[in-house]
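in:
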């Protein structure tokens, strides 16, 4: 138990961390530079807020654990949940057969999700919010962080634990150096992804045989991505993306032309017949980053990082929010184990976060490194992992057991070791012989 925990950043990682810490701290203070979230508008502090967001099954499970009944609340507000195997048109090299996997994804806008979670967190008696103020730095010594210093008149907020949830644009490297500490090393993979999103009115019959469309490129020949998902308010969010120079235009004619260039017509057909409700919003994501707090030998007590502050993935794979929620759950466990925010607790937390990050990182970078233009830190054994993943995906086209296992691993509810079990590898080999 700590007296006061300060969470910097009121995005999804920060809100979930505050909920967890409310059980392990007498008082939790959430500090964010933005004003309170409007459930109908994108937030300045979340630059990807206007673009499609999905929650994998593991992320939904964490939400339900922390906020019982929240998923039903989101569904009642208009979010959609559907089986990705049976109800999504999925194209990668070919159109995958539509089969039930038992794995259901949740699609909704980021403002709706944040508003619902924030409402639950704000109702906790020992949680307080400080909106519209930024953190300038940490207070303490190289051995122990004991609070934060705010931009507003040099005010300080004492804390037994500070959790940085400010995302990939974090300033905590500078905060640590100013305190006399080393900043973590960074594994970076330069992928040069850009994407653009528009919102359309959703009517019955828009997509007669499914709930969503997802078109991924067959690397390294193709580089263009398309996604159409249902969100609240009877709307579609349409995202077009590409890497290494294949970037979607933000003018209407160019956007439609890009959609027509995809190897599956579903998204172009939606754009042609549905009513547009928004301008086209763009975003650029130059590189995936993993800040290796887990490799730091000397760490100050009282400071940890969670969410995109630790790792930000290629966003077209939809892993970010789920990875952040899984990380946010761990500080409670490590605090209880060590009975405080000691250096041992901090190391334990960083290692736990790294273990959670490693699987989605390998999945994302495994595809990214198929492109010869991609440069960066390649995980050990990545070529072997990529070959295995490709073989499993080919087998998934004809073997329902392989398909379901692969879907569960993608949704982070089954360990990735399931893909190398003798029984599954045998099925992959049989499928290869049949081809």
């Amino acid at each position: 138990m700590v007296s006061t925990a300060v969470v910097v950043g009121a995005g999804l990682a920060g809100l979930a961390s505050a909920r967890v810490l409310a059980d392990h701290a007498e008082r939790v203070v959430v500090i964010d530079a933005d004003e309170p979230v409007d459930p109908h508008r994108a937030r300045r502090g979340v630059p990807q807020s206007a673009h499609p967001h999905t929650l994998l099954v593991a992320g939904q499970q964490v939400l339900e654990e922390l906020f019982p009944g929240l998923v039903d609340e989101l569904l009642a507000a208009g979010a959609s949940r559907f089986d990705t195997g049976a109800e999504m048109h999925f194209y990668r090299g070919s159109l995958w057969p539509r089969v039930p996997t038992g794995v259901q994804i949740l699609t909704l806008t980021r403002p709706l999700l944040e508003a619902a979670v924030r409402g639950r967190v704000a109702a906790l008696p020992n949680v307080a919010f400080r909106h519209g103020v930024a953190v300038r730095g940490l207070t303490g010594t190289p051995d122990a962080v004991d609070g934060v210093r705010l931009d507003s008149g040099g005010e300080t907020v004492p804390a037994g634990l500070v959790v940085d949830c400010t995302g990939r644009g974090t300033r905590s490297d500078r905060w640590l150096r100013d305190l006399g500490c080393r900043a973590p090393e960074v594994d970076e993979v330069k992928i040069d992804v850009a994407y653009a999103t528009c919102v359309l009115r959703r009517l019955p019959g828009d997509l007669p045989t499914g709930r969503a469309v997802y078109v991924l490129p067959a690397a390294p020949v193709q580089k263009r991505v398309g996604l159409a998902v249902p969100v609240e308010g009877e709307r579609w969010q349409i995202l077009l993306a590409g890497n290494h120079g294949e970037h979607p235009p933000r003018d209407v004619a160019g956007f439609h032309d890009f959609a027509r260039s995809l190897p599956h017509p579903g998204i172009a057909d939606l754009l042609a017949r549905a009513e547009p409700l928004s301008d086209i919003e763009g975003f650029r994501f130059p590189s995936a980053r993993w800040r290796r707090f887990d490799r730091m030998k000397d760490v100050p007590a009282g400071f940890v990082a969670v969410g995109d502050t630790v790792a930000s993935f290629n966003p077209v794979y939809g892993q970010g929010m789920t990875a952040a929620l899984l990380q946010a759950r761990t500080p409670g466990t490590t605090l209880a184990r060590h009975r405080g925010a000691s250096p041992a607790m901090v190391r334990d937390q960083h290692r736990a976060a790294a273990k959670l990050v490693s699987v989605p990182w390998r999945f994302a970078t495994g595809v990214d490194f198929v492109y010869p233009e991609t440069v960066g830190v390649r995980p050990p054994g990545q070529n072997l992992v990529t070959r295995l993943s490709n073989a499993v995906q080919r087998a998934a086209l004809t073997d329902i057991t392989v398909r379901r296992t692969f879907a569960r691993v993608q949704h982070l509810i089954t360990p990735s070791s399931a893909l190398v079990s003798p029984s599954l590898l045998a099925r992959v080999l049989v499928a290869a012989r049949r081809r």
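note: The longest helix spans residues 343-368.
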